[in-house]
Amino acid sequence: MNEKASPTAVGRVVALHVHPVKSLGGIAVADGRLELCGLEDDRRWMVTDPDGGFLTQRQVARMALVTVARGAGGGLVLALAGHGAQAVVRPPADGARRTVRVWADSVPAVDAGDAAAAWLTGALGRPCRLVYLHDVAARPADPAFAPPGATVGFADGFAVLVASRESLAALNRDLPSPVPMDRFRPNLVLEGAAPWAEDRWRLLAVGEALLRLVKPCSRCVVTTIDQQTAERPDPREPLATLARTRRAWGGVMFGQNAVVARPGRVAVGDAVRVLEEGPSNLVPA
Questions:
Q1: Which residue, 45, 245, 261, 285, has fewest beta-carbon neighbours within 10 Å?
Q2: Backbone angles phi, psi at 188, to 5 degrees
Q3: Using the 8-state DSSP alphabet, how is residue 54 labeled?
Q4: How far is residue 148's CA from residue 213's CA, in Å, rounded to a whole number?
């Protein structure tokens, strides 16, 4: 890997977020390990319909209200006001296998059992199952953007999502009402660079890890959902403003998708250094 002789310091990590279950509540952590498939424990679990199709806040906004805590032995504790809490044991690798779907990908997963399914069905108001991904190499990242060998868990497309506080502040200046960072559900939140500087970054050193930024992240209706209430205070925003200010090939963009070029531990407070840069990757639509 061709690292610059004099890497450029561009800021520091100010927040790390793990979302153990795709589209349920996240966990702020002080540190964690970046593996090839992403930040440890991030999006290794997923809620599906009975046929194995993935469910997100796009279909069930109420998913935002289900909190997730790490449990014993790699398990979880799910909770929702009015529904109590449910401990979930991580299923064994040789447990009941199901093929589940994430967009166009079919992925082998292990079912987390009837108790977890029954609790989620009651909490979300529709039949569903919970599955866990043991085989982290089973789902390659999009080869149109990611290098060979890059993998992803149950995240939409790539292992890591990087966002900038300065870019959020710039977006909020254009919005009728500001939105918090949790609307975008990033893994790493950085501070210290100019707004939208991340469009030009290609390779970052963060803690022990290296991250390769591969494409801007196209945003969907989830960004209109208040993550604390599951309501949509303005169903147009922030998408309408992003459509004016950040429209590009593939949609409207906020944050950068990344793959892990070198695994390692990262922590809040770590310096962020740019090892490679290029022209803006915000390609006009």
A1: 285
A2: -115, 125
A3: B
A4: 14
Q: 53 in helix, strand or coil?
A: strand
The mean predicted confidence, pLDDT, of the chain is 96
- Residue 5's pLDDT band (cuts 50, 70, 90): very low
Residues ≥6 apart with Cβ < 8 Å to 50 = 127, 128, 129
Backbone dihedral angles phi then psi of residue 123, each to the nearest 5 degrees: -70, -40
* Domain locations in the chain as residue ranges: 8-277
Find out whether 191 and 271 touch, Cβ atoms under 8 Å: no
**DSSP 8-state assignment for residue 64:** G
Q: What is the pTM of this model?
A: 0.95
Provide the token pair at 19: 């979302």
Q: Region 233-249: what's the mean pLDDT?
A: 97
Other Cβ atoms within 10 Å of 268 Cβ, number: 17
CB 263 within 8 A of CB 35: yes
Average pLDDT of the residues in 64-77: 97
